[in-house]
Request: fold
Amino acid sequence: MKRDYVAIANRYAQDVLAGTVATHDAFRLIVQRHVVDLARAENNDPDFPYVFDGEAVARVCRAIELHPPSPDATQIMLEPWHIFMAVVTAGWHRKPNA
Reply:
């Protein structure tokens, strides 16, 4: 089953910001920053030194889901918050020469 990890993370972020997912205030700020950064990247802000790579996120999430932690473990299905953390850690890269 092919999952759209970036869409899942974006939906999770919107739910956090809407208050339908309970979370700590500090984590809400992380989510808010990510959403603002996505807008800056999509608008090609010349002062924004990062690019977002959704395919890198998909590779990381697929690798985690396809490789359980032990041979006798069942396949892992990442929860939306897991995917969001992968988006934040694996999706952002500094632009060359930035």
Strands lie at 50-52, 92-94. The radius of gyration is 15 Å. The longest strand covers residues 50-52.
